[in-house]
Each structure stands twice: as structure tokens, then as C-alpha cells.
Amino acid sequence: MFIKLFYTLRTYGVPVSTRELLDLNAALEHGLMMQPHPEYPDDPALRDFASREDMYRLIRLCMVKDERHFDKFDRAMADYFEGVDSLDIDELMAKLTDVPKEWLDLKLDPKNLTEEQRRLLKKYGSLEELMKALEERLKEQKERHQGGSKWVGTGGTSPFGAYGDHPEGVRVGGESRKRSAAKVWEQRKYRNLDDDSLLGTRQIQMALRNLRQFARTGSADELDINETIKRTAKKGVLDIHMQAERRNRVKVLMLFDVGGSMDIHVEALEKLFSAAKNEFKTLDFFYFHNCLYDYVWKDNNRRHSAPMPTFELLNKYGREYRVIFVGDASMSPYELFSVGGSVEYMNNEAGVVWLKRVLDHFDKVAWLNPETPAYWQYTQTIGEIKKLFNNNMYPMTLHGVEDMTAYLAR
User: Fold this and answer.
1) 3-class DSSP state for residue 170?
2) What was the pLDDT predicted at 216?
3) Which of 48, 52, 379, 398 is deepest in the core (most CB within 10 A)?
4) Rounded-to-integer distance, Cα 219 and Cα 242, Å
5) SS3 assignment, position 66
6) Dihedrals phi, psi of 160, to nearest 5 degrees
């Protein structure tokens, strides 16, 4: 049961495994979703399914182990049960992020209604209708509201805002009070890797050092002391000899997976990124999400406004670059093999097509995986990408980095 829900959660970046799916099925088999008949509570034959809200809470309890994934879980549930994937959620989120903070500051006491008063309030019937109504409010609203029944505000009976009272709604800001929100929106924002993170990078630097290859390049503008002494002693007069600067001739291009299941690896990625920047004179980097498609980006805050087409990347960087993908390679198989499989937009070509183009263009390409190797066998896409990369997938451990640099340096 719930196989489709399982893959929907994975598609939205909720890190679920078959263990959580089995737990959910076991909970249902033990009757946790059955409630007694109000008139015949002792008759098991008359038991009925619990409310949809109870089902939602049970699924979240079984399938989500970290509260940071609650927002992704809500989006996945909305898609699975309501089909609200047709809404432009990212655009709506951007609008919510722009709501002035003073609109959500409570200046009076929170609104508290009786159960009878709550039952009389208008409900929208489905999460899709609720979200559409919120989108309309954001288009129309121009100022702060408090104590009202329509706008995004505080202390009222509107389904949108904070510190109010409504049997269903979207909490924007504030804190949970009655736990009746159908959707709690939080800002979802990819985070740029911090190359100033120096703690613990020394060992990674030593491992990456195996990849460095030095050569004399450029104009002869550096004094060669040894050769100058040798020639001066031989001729009996000062004979200055110049040489080209000794530079690391290895060129490195790093492609980082960010967002979703990679959030838990940010600290490790920062250490890797900082070590790489200290080791390589010629280093460039870009970001992608889950799988490589037709564009990458430099700045996560401008990922939609300043993308770089992947074809342009292939044209700009020569085949001599050593390419390192950094990501957990964990995604829905659709994201890797299907047109339109991306969780973010309608991609015209499958992710595997773009990965093959990179492999064909560059001489040496490796994949560095922060996920524990013991779990690789349980994720289909990890195995598929590892096979595609001719087994040049390495764990993001010191030993794994050493093995990767040994391959790239050959």
C-alpha cells in the first residue's frame, strides 16, 4: 500500500525509505486508523476510518523523521491527495516571503472562538481551493490587517495569517496554537556553500593535494635562484636567469547538488568546498538540484534569474578540466530517466542524457557522494549513476576523496 505516496514523498525531497513505508502499513494493519461507531463503540464490525486529519498525522509520524521536512511533506500530500501540483507553488512562496513582517506582528490578544463559532466559519472544502484563495488575497491586499475575516493578518477569523482562529487555513508566520492549519508555510531557500568554513578542512586539503600537478607556465618573470648562482659561478660575472611561475596546471570544475535531501550535508560540503578553493588555482563551480538538466547556476539566490545553460558550460570548459559531481544521487527514477521528471519544471530531456553529455565531453569525471555507502544499495538511482560513471562514485570520506583524486590524476 501507499507505493505511489512513497514515490511522491521522494519526488518532493522527503528522505523516506522502505522502513518508513513498512511502519505505516503495519500501523494501518493494527487498526490505528479505525475509530469506533459513536452509537455502538463496542462493535468492531461497525468501526469506520478516522478523519483525514488523523490520517495525515499518522502518515507524517511514520514517514517524516525530521521536522525540517514538514513543509516538503505538506507539498507532497497536497499533490498526492488534492492534485495541487498544478499551482505555481514557488511563485506563491515568493509572494509569501515578501509579506511585510509588521503585517504578522500581533498587537492585540489572540482570537479564541468557541467550537460552535468555529463551525460557522466558511471552509473552502479542499486544499487546492484554499491555496487559490490565498493567491487571490495576496494579489489584492495592500496593507496590514488585524482582527478581520478575509485578509492575511493577525488575531482574526481569516484562514490566512497568524494568531487568529479558524478551523482550517494557512498559517503565515507566528506560532502554532490550535494545530488546525491545513498548511504551514515556511520559507524554503537553497543555501549557498560557505567557502570561508575552515574548520576540519585540513585533512580534505591533504587528500585533494594528490590531484595537483605543477608546471612552469606564463612569461619568465620569476627569479631562478639556483640557475642564477650556477651561471654566475661558471662565468665569473653576475648572470641573472628568469623562469616562468610554477603553477598548478590542474583545472577543476565542481557541480554541487543543493536543496532537498542535501540539506543535511551542507556542513560537510562547505568543508570540501573550502578545501578545494585553497588547493586549486583554477577552480570553478556551479549548482544543480537532484540531477543535472539543461541549466545550472552560480548563485542560489538568483538561480531563476541568472541560470547558465548546460550547453554553454560544455562549450566554455575544455575537456582537460577534472569534473567532480557532489551529491547524494538520491531521487525518483523519473528524475533520472524521464522527460518532465524534474521536480521543479518540465525538462525536455531526461537527466541521464545530460549526464552522458558531460561524461562524453570531459576526459575525467567523478561523483562524490556524502551518503553513507552502506545505504547506496537501497537507492536505485545511486546504483544507476554509479554504473553510468563506470563505478567512479566515491564516498565523501577522507579515504574516498583520496581514491577519487588518484583516479582523476591518472
Assistant:
1) strand
2) 44
3) 379
4) 9
5) coil
6) -125, 120
Residues 6+ apart with CB under 8 A from 65: 15, 20
Greater model confidence, 310 or 148? 310
Asked whether residue 349 carries a pLDDT value surpassing 70, the answer given is yes
In whole angstroms, give the CA distance from residue 188 to residue 289: 14
Which one-letter DSSP state was computed for residue 146?
A: B
List CB contacts of 356: < 8 A, sequence separation 6 or more.
Answer: 388
pLDDT digit string (tens) for 107-132?
A: 555 555 566 655 555 565 555 566 66
- 388 vs 340: CA distance, rounded Å: 21
Helix (H) or strand (E) holding 287: strand 282-288
- Amino acid (1-letter code) at residue 188: R
Averaged pLDDT for residues 52-71: 77
Q: In what order do the strands lie in the sheet with 160-162?
A: 153-154, 160-162, 170-172, 183-185
Compute CA distances 38 → 35, 226, 265, 295, whole Å.
9, 96, 49, 57
Helix runs in 194-239, H state only: 202-208, 225-235
pLDDT of residue 194: 47
pTM over 0.85: no
What is the reported pLDDT for 146?
Answer: 66
Provide the H-helix boundaries in 64-126: 70-77, 89-97, 115-120
CA 394 from centre of chain: 20
Locate cell 569525471: which residue? Answer: 365
- Distance between CA atoms of 11 and 76, rounded to whole angstroms? 8
pLDDT, mean of residues 54-83 = 77
Pairing state between β 322-326 and 307-309? unpaired
Q: Say how many C-beta atoms besides its own lie within 10 A of residue 208's C-beta.
A: 24
C-alpha torsion 285→286→291→295, nearest 10: -140
Closest CA to 69 of 344, 266, 262: 262
167-180 burial, b if ≥16 CB within 10 A, otherwise e?
A: bbbbbbbbeeeeee
Q: Tens of pLDDT along 252-285?
A: 999 999 988 888 888 888 888 888 887 787 889 9
